[in-house]
TrEMBL record, chain A:
The lineage of its organism: Eukaryota, Metazoa, Chordata, Craniata, Vertebrata. Belongs to the GST superfamily. Alpha family. Its EC number is 2.5.1.18. It comes from Meleagris gallopavo. Pfam families: GST_C_3, GST_N. It is an enzyme of class 2 (transferase). This is glutathione transferase.
From TrEMBL, chain B:
This is glutathione transferase. GO terms for molecular function: glutathione transferase activity. Coiled coil: none annotated. GO terms for biological process: aflatoxin metabolic process; detoxification; glutathione metabolic process; xenobiotic metabolic process. Residues 3-83 form the GST N-terminal domain. Belongs to the GST superfamily. Alpha family. The gene is GSTA4.
Amino acid sequence: MSGKPVLHYVSVRGRMEPVKWLLAAAGVEFEERILKTKDDLQKLRTDGCLLFQQVPMVEIDGMKMVQTRAILNYIAGKYNLYGKDLKERALIDMYVGGTDDLMGFLLSFPFLSAEDKVKQCAFVVQKATSRYFPAYEKVLKDHGQDFLVGNRLSWADIHLLEAILMLEEKKSDALSGFPLLQAFKKRISSIPTIKKFLAPGSKRKPISDDKYVETVRRVLRMYYDVKPN
Amino acid sequence: MAAKPVLYYFDGRGKMESIRWLLAAAGVEFEEVFLETREQYEKLLQSGVLMFQQVPMVEIDGMKLVQTRAILNYIAGKYNLYGKDLKERALIDMYVGGTDDLMGFLLSFPFLSAEDKVKQCAFVVQKATSRYFPAYEKVLKDHGQDFLVGNRLSWADIHLLEAILMLEEKKSDALSGFPLLQAFKKRISSIPTIKKFLAPGSKRKPISDDKYVETVRRVLRMYYDVKPN
């Protein structure tokens, strides 16, 4: 009799958003506990719920999991989105590593000054269009299949779609010049569980705005003097 | 007839060191190609073997793997150092995530100014002794076993030993106040494959010096200033 996973985090997309994507794509309902004050975070720490005093933390299958990669690996494995063997897993890990690096450039974005946001935006778009998108376009071109790995949906596809949509929020034609990724985006977006997650009313977070930035700074006591890449 | 894995990186620790540790602990011999010139790096780039134009890259079992975590996950899985099921893997991933964060604070260390090195050293020691070492001490205390996960050697133990030794290079009594970690360090160090890796003549790399920094800057054309945390 397992309850739904419970996600503990702050109110920005941050590091928890890929976890939501993966659960949603797997058709798994979950609950969220949003930390609103420093006391909320302190209580989790004092109760011994956070192995390294940090969020994200996900309560799942009797565990209090921390470390985003550990959480994602577990969910991917549990819901058969992690390939069929070690070699497929290696490919998925490689591809997810790339999209993780790319989306990682946007983690601190809400906390930058207006001027630095412009710089960082340009930086991320340049990385996406000169390094990451070409790599994934080539993967799709080389095997001609619909999915990145093993001719079926995996965590790598879900993570790449998330990255594509984040980039398009920064530059709406980010995918121009990448026809296979454009087709990939349409295809993965139309998978029922993912289509549902992309529709209004889902647990997907919008781009973080200033209202949330101050709360997060206060709760986590970080992100005060953030520099762009 | 498997060839030895081939590691492509600089002649220094950086992101490749954890991979060397894991292969050595698993008793797997490997070869290394050291990046020394810009021309060499550009040749690698042109040959298309670096998916995201970055090293580390490891040729193993017919794959050219990039992304440190993907490489480590694959080696751990292949050599039975990744637990016996999804839940043990989740614990290992969590623990490795912590030591990865901790050692990550030292990645840029060789590139810092003398003054910033002092600051960063204090920062890392403080994180280790107030956040990370207490967490691992508690894990060992709670189950009273010799290894972090599943009562047998796993990647998590090897990674933690690596982190402990790196910290002790910065503060020789970093483990004071952590008796279980002291015993753990002795115990894991005396495992034959690991003992061999810790002895002179192994492929373990020394602390990175100015020559290493100069090589990396030259090969990657990375001439900007690196700041501490």
